[in-house]
């Protein structure tokens, strides 16, 4: 059975006028159930893990400042979010959802987190709507608890996974792959194990060729036994922040490549949602929903 992490705290409201589309976290489960891709039985409310899992990845001094709400104004501004206890609790819930989804993926081959993909969080700071890095925390959890030995992180959000790259820059057990808009945020890129910087306005055919080529090369050099997939949909042509030009069908083909790669090679995969900032919320939900439909088709 496909297991999907979801909590109402994912859609915690932000102050009026904030541009981050929080409503997608509530609308996506509704859409999946309306169309029959999922039922209530597929969803689970994540149990919060203790802070030791956070400290496996993030610096103790940063975590202390975060949980005590003692970030400076400049540190808060860098995250893009107004800081609050509710926001910190939300981030902890999200990373707990990613860990639990990964554990379900070991059992069922795949599992999903409606939120997650907070790849801009560094070991010692937050950035770009990300306070804690759920991808990194999950990879470290899997390795430390002997659920995996070699984790491949496939990050196809339009923005480079700079925080993830920094956290794993000297870790041989984790391979970080980021395919992103070269001229997009962050302007200073960290060094992933493999970075593919894309030109503005790249379309489906060239994008999918590059993705296929690089994924095949990665599997030849890195024998992954677990995949974490950041499936952001800000690569869409309609996205107001993305600068790329993928169609809805192109995003579906992208997700299909990744999920089939995992399924055909017998590698468990956990998928988290990442970014999406199209002006029409329908475009965001349609694009995100595709990976859940594919999960059901390919794995079940």
UniProtKB/TrEMBL annotation:
Coiled coil: none annotated. Residues 18-282 form the Histone deacetylase domain. Transmembrane segments: none annotated. It comes from the Bacteria. Keywords: Hydrolase. GO terms for biological process: epigenetic regulation of gene expression. It holds the Pfam family Hist_deacetyl. GO terms for molecular function: histone deacetylase activity; hydrolase activity. PANTHER family: HISTONE DEACETYLASE 12, HISTONE DEACETYLASE HDAC1-RELATED. Belongs to the histone deacetylase family. This is Acetoin utilization deacetylase AcuC. It comes from Algoriphagus halophilus.
């Amino acid at each position: 059975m496909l297991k999907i992490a979801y909590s109402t705290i994912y859609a915690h409201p932000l102050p009026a006028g904030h541009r981050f589309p929080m409503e997608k976290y509530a609308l996506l489960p509704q859409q999946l159930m309306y169309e029959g891709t999922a039922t209530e039985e597929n969803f689970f409310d994540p149990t919060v893990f203790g802070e030791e899992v956070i400290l496996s990845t993030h610096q103790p001094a940063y975590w202390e400042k975060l949980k005590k709400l003692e970030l400076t104004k400049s540190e808060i501004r860098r995250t893009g979010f107004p800081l609050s206890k509710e926001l910190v609790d939300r981030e902890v819930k999200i990373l707990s959802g990613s860990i639990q989804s990964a554990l379900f993926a070991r059992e069922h081959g795949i599992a999903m987190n409606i939120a997650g993909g907070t790849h801009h969080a560094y070991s010692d700071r937050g950035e770009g709507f990300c306070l804690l890095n759920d991808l990194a925390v999950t990879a470290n959890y899997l390795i430390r608890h002997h659920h995996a030995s070699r984790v491949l992180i496939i990050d196809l959000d339009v923005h480079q996974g700079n925080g993830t790259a920094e956290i794993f820059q000297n870790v041989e057990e984790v391979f970080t792959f980021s395919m992103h808009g070269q001229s997009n945020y962050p302007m200073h890129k960290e060094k992933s194990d493999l970075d593919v910087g894309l030109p503005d306005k790249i379309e489906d055919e060239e994008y999918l060729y590059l993705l296929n080529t690089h994924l095949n090369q990665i599997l030849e050099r890195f024998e992954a036994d677990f995949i974490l997939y950041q499936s952001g949909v800000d690569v869409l042509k309609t996205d107001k922040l993305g600068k790329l030009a993928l169609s809805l069908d192109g995003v579906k083909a992208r997700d299909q490549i990744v999920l089939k790669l995992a399924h055909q090679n017998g590698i468990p995969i956990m998928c988290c949602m990442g970014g999406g900032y199209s002006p029409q919320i329908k475009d965001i939900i349609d694009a995100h929903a595709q990976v859940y439909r594919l999960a059901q088709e390919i794995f079940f």
